[in-house]
User: Which sequence fits this backbone?
């Protein structure tokens, strides 16, 4: 079967993850992605072997961070600080459908890879820009990473419990969301090009992605005029909460509409007598007495294992699932059977498990096609085929530090 973006060529002139992650997703969908890197040094992400306390090092000189952000790509090294290097890139752009960068405006302009310049070379080009804070405003030229997007958008006050400091989500969550948003915008622009003959620049930012993720939270603050309360387990709705089981595992249940599920829940938990208790028989009472009811449920859930409770909830058609650690996913049959986690044969690491593509197509396929490339692995091949240079010219470029 064909891949959805088969025949689309993307030039990726990005670094780290929020930028290059978008083309990696386009590669999952079958696009040919050419990653442009500086000779010798390459993308800084290649050598970032630690982020805080998190080690990114893998065997065979591989880097987890680089592998994830640059799957499905071909690496071409070009010194864009030279006129010759810029000419090489311009040739590649002339044969491509999409160009993406997350470099800041000053660097983009100095390297002659801004939209007005590249559009003259390829009027049909979709030009994608990824930034920290967006294309307008006083901080449009400022840099930033995942944590700046989380901080400025209000994301850090949307996690954790009340009366605790703002909390940062685990590594790279917003980077990945921005990469997803970039891929979505690029595909939308490609669709407009095919349907209306319009080519254009699209701009995605960490800040914009994060505010869009918080869509309903922001509606509460701006339209409802109240700050959404953070989840405080012992005061929160007992029927939309999580509980610890006898084996130390947790389950999360979400039961709504509450009144319809209240009776079945009481029977599932083995306490049918509280169904008609006037303190709990209506949603307002359950919320007013949440601390009492959550404590009661805590004691009940502690009498059985996670699997026992999930089986009971399934019998009563009540919505609940396990609270997984990331390391639990490989043993979750729903994850495996839907290929949300798949086997992949890596040329250096051997057989590994990686996230699968989360969308199922009935008449096409998608997913990781190849591992991240070695630095400059496809330079000569692509320059002699796609860009039209001779082997002798490429050798001279290499000798002069152009590639």
Assistant:
């Amino acid at each position: 079967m064909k891949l959805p973006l088969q025949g689309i060529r993307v030039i990726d002139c990005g670094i780290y993850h929020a930028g290059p992650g978008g083309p990696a997703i386009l590669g999952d969908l079958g696009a040919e992605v050419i990653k442009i890197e500086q000779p010798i040094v390459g993308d800084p992400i290649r050598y970032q072997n630690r982020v805080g306390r998190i080690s990114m090092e893998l065997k065979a000189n591989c880097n987890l961070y680089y592998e994830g952000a640059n799957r499905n790509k071909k690496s071409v090294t070009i010194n864009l600080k030279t006129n010759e290097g810029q000419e090489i890139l311009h040739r590649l752009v002339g044969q491509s459908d999409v160009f993406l960068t997350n470099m800041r405006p000053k660097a983009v302009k100095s390297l002659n890879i801004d939209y007005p310049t590249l559009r003259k070379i390829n009027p049909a080009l979709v030009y994608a820009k990824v930034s920290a804070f967006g294309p307008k405003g006083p901080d449009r030229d400022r840099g930033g990473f995942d944590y700046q997007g989380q901080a400025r958008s209000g994301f850090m006050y949307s996690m954790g419990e009340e009366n605790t400091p703002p909390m940062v989500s685990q590594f790279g969550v917003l980077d990945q969301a921005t990469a997803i948003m970039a891929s979505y915008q690029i595909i939308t622009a490609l669709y407009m090009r095919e349907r209306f003959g319009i080519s254009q620049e699209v701009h995605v930012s960490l800040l914009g992605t994060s505010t869009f993720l918080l869509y309903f939270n922001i509606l509460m603050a701006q339209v409802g005029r109240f700050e959404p309360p953070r989840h405080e387990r012992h005061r929160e709705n007992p029927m939309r909460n999580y509980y610890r089981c006898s084996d130390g595992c947790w389950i999360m249940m979400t039961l709504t509409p509450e009144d319809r599920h209240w009776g079945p829940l009481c029977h599932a938990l083995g306490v049918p007598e509280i169904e008609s208790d006037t303190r709990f028989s209506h949603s307002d009472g359950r919320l007013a007495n949440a601390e009492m009811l959550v404590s009661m449920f805590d004691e009940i859930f502690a009498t059985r294992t996670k699997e026992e409770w999930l089986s009971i909830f399934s019998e009563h058609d009540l919505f609940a699932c396990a609270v997984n650690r990331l390391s639990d996913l490989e043993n979750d049959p729903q994850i495996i059977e839907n290929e949300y986690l798949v086997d992949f044969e890596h040329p250096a690491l051997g057989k590994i498990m990686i996230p699968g593509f989360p969308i199922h197509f009935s008449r096409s396929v998608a997913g990781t096609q190849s591992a991240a490339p070695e630095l400059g692995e496809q330079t000569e091949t692509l320059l002699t085929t796609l860009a039209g240079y001779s082997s002798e010219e490429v050798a001279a470029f290499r000798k002069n530090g152009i590639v």
